[in-house]
Design a protein that fits this description.
This protein is mainly α and 439 residues long. The protein is built from 22 helices and two strands.
Amino acid sequence: MIVSKWTGKEVRALRTAALRMTQESFAEAVGFVAPTVRKWERATVTRPVAGGSAAALDTMLTRLNEPERERFRTALDATATSAEPAPAPALPGASPLGVHPWEVEDDVNRRDFAILLGSALLAPALVTDTAHLGVSDANRLAAGVIELARQEQRVGGATLVQIAIATLERAKTLLNTCAFDERSGQAFMSAAGNLAVLAGWVAYDADKHELARHCYADAFALANQADDTALTVHACVNAALQYASLGRKGLANPHMALVMTSRARDLVRGAPPGRIHALIATREAQAYGVLGDRAGFRRAIATAWRELDFAAASEPLESCPQWLGFVTPTEVRFHEALGFGDLGEHSTAVALAAQVATEQSGARNAANYRAWWATALARLGDLPTATAEGLAVLAELESHSIASPRTLRVLLPVRHAVGDEAGDFATRYDGIARQKVSA
């Protein structure tokens, strides 16, 4: 059993119900004085018992025998049913469910919104009638993360970022206010951590990089609390991608991407062949490309192809973790094209990007791949073809079939190449960019 935050409610349940002690005898048993115990029993959610005091209470909790644990749980249940639970703090502009009007009225059409709302995603946010989290709550949250990831692949991150953030905040609130046993707590922390990674990704896709950083920090913290190595690796590879991407624009140090991939590689060292090894190598290849390290890039991309071949032979796509399903030859080839472009080998980049753009993939990925192809063409000097391909991407952004500010930013070199000349591409690009700024 774990108590994530010690308030007066938990302290009193431990002392009076579980151990049936006076304040004086409890203070002696826990190694403090009676006035300190009285102070603990006045603790609130916003000002809980912390530090060494909380650690001492944790120790007392772990020493309970089964009848004492049952009395502790019963006391907490009685406290929970005797008062209305406080609502979770909402994000600015959010409704009680964490749903924002713009999500229905603008970027997400009503049918898509109904699908999302009907999914398991928001179920954990509605857990307000109990003071306990169970494995079933963790499973609902995990199912919601999977559903949100599917939606993101189809419509892009900008439509979903506020739903993801609101649900993540609610999940963190539940961890801070509800009691749970060790198994349930670890499962819910892992599910919340995977939601944090996904929230970071949709924030990244929405061009909200500071928000993405905060989400990844939450993911690392939750992974540590849950002792979830796979979650730590997941957060590392996503953070590495952000560092490399921002490094390409001079907004971050791409060496940090290598720090993240090195940490991930250490954690999976000795693991059987699988797509995670290929993904780590592609992140390294991207960082080396941004750094202009040709040898490092070629070594990393060769490793990615080799590891993907190993994975294809030993890890069928349907049996790999859901979040690794996108690691396919198309994805590795895409990173190869990016790296050659960063290294100034534009002819090779165009050839690879053209191949990637014609391969089957999800709607959001397909638009992003095509945008990169247009950019590679512009850098090679083929502006007519670049603008033609870019216009196809702009059409998808204009129709709201996908909402990915990151994809629009990918096309910026094409817009620069067009310059101030009046033309369809420049007019439509600038129009979408104005909508993004005013949103």
